[in-house]
Amino acid sequence: MSDAALAGTADEPGGAALARTIRHRVEAAGTSFYWAMRLLPEERRNAMYAVYAYCREVDDIADDDRPAADKLAALAQWREEIDSLFAGQPRRLVARALRQPVLRYDLRRADFLAVIDGMEMDAREAIRAPDLATLDLYCGRVAGAVGHLSVHIFGDSSDAAHRVADSLGRALQLTNVLRDLDEDGRRGRLYLPREILDAHGIGGADPAAVLRHPALPAACRTLAAIAEDQFRASRCAMAQCGRRAMRPAAVMGAVYRATLAELVRRGWREPRARVSLPKPLMLWLALRHGLI
Question: 292 and 217, same structural domain?
């Protein structure tokens, strides 16, 4: 069913039918953030679902096989939609679901636009062996900005909470980079930074060639150490925040840190092998970090 048709059957923005529609989309996506979002009270949970649905909308555009010009045009339409959202007149289904969260949790327009900025980096051309500064900018846009939106919804908009958003967002995205080497490579992308590749004697930026290089595991361990530093920084900042508000962030951090540990254990000798945590471990991490 189209967004327009769904919107016609939903309640006013923030209504029960609209919230159910967005929730079903998130559940169907099978996100690893599901356990963390389930810790939130219903109103905040629905707000996080709406933010996640927005991120999926723009991410799907960036990952589409259409020409770059078409993808950039579609992302520009979302820029206009964010303007409409903050003017109080959202049109698209997902933007309508965001209207009440924006008002209730003081979500920032700049963070929504930063996510689009990151997706435009992917849409313009396949990113291959960016320098560390460019990779950090990318992580800040596609993950850190989402973290800034999230901490507001969690209930802590302090400076410390925004430091959590920055460091944890980068840690999560770097873990994604190390987990998704093969999947990204099939899209012609290679997010491993140039400085690290050069340090380990890996020349060029062809994803297939880099993933076959014998020094790949060592390069990945170097990037994993940077991710681990970001996890540590996020925990330090989290200690200065309200514990209850940061429970979802603690669960996200625990799940992704366990994923990073498993990647390090396996050693990237077979980049095609997908790493995912078993559901019992995910549940245990959610209980351990979500209930204390």
Answer: yes
| Residue given tokens 């330090």 in the structure block | 236
Last residue of one domain, picked from the residues 109, 138, 170: 109
What are the tens digits of pLDDT across the range 11-35? Answer: 444 467 677 777 777 766 656 666 6
Cα–Cα dist 118/174, whole Å? 14
Per-residue pLDDT band for 5 (boundaries 50, 70, 90) equals very low
CATH number of the domain where residue 138 is located: 1.10.600.10
In terms of domains, do 252 and 136 share one?
Answer: yes
Task: Please give the residue range of the domain that contains residue 175.
Answer: 126-292
In sign, the C-alpha dihedral spanning 234, 237, 239, 244 is: negative
**pTM metric for this prediction:** 0.88
In angstroms, the CA 184 to CA 198 distance is 20
> Residue written as tokens 């140039």?
194
Q: Do the domain assignments include residue 120?
A: no
* DSSP 3-state percent helix, strand, coil across the chain (nearest 5): 75, 0, 25
Measured between alpha carbons, how far is 184 from 135 in angstroms, rounded to an integer? Answer: 14
Handedness of CA 285, 287, 291, 292 (dihedral sign): negative
190 DSSP 8-state letter? B
In a domain, 282, yes or no: yes
Q: Tokens at residue 143, please?
A: 């993950």
Beta bridge partners of 190: 128
